[in-house]
Specification:
This protein is mainly alpha-helical. The protein has 13 helices and no strands. The two termini are 30 Å apart. Helix 1 crosses helix 3, helix 4 packs antiparallel against helix 6 and helix 6 runs antiparallel to helix 7. Helix content is 66%, strand content 0%.
Length: 283
Amino acid sequence: MSPVSPVALDHCKEIAMVPGSLFEFTSRYIPTACQGQLLALYALTQSVGSIPGAAVDDVVKWTKLKWWGGELVAEPASPSRHPVLRALWESGARQHLDNDLLLRLVNDAAKQIDAAPDANEKALFERLAARGETEILLELALDGIEIEGRRLACLAAASGLFAMISGFLANRRVGNLYIPLDLMAEHQLKATHFQQQPAGAELLAAISQLTDIALAWFAQGLLGLNAAGIGATSTHLELRWAMEARLLARSSKRAASYTLTGNRYGPSDAWFAWRFCRRLGRR
């Protein structure tokens, strides 16, 4: 397998290694041999997954998704491929990923275009789980690892809710936060509440409740997680989940300041990540 070309590598870094992002932080703990595969995979999921939320007409979104659908099943070794797909091939990741699983990324993104608000927590769980399972399965496939279905659903939903909450808190875009309708009614939220600076008590209470929901899902998914035979890339996935749960717990304790400033990774996070990876290495 040839090394990942500098052009493809730089393109993937620009997409996946956004300064301050969780992957930019957790990637520091990926073994060198696995960095290229995970970088290419995260660049792919970000490239496809960001299309539904783009500030363009739906026709453009559908056109982009159709294009990605064709590219994902085309000859992977072709030199004319998109830089992300070239990196996926050159890093060796593409050989572990079947076409059906890759096409699920496109289908998941398509379902997010004009998605209606969820009626309640159960509907929120089902939507986030269905959407997030594909990305987890792709990363697990790099090591040939499988996890039980209910656990997978809990972790996918929890990770998706983390992304939804943190994305909203980072830029205060209403489109980033799909609060279930019953929760909106409970806290009497209106569109104006999402624009207030600083955030009002009603919105903070709803976000705090969503955070508690996500932490409960993480607890169900991580409890007794069977990591027998886990590989280096899947170790990264476990670190990602642990960091997401850690950040959610932190935001729950200081919701107001977290909403205003977003998240920053400090020495305590680095120490936590190092110790976590070390424990995984001893299993």
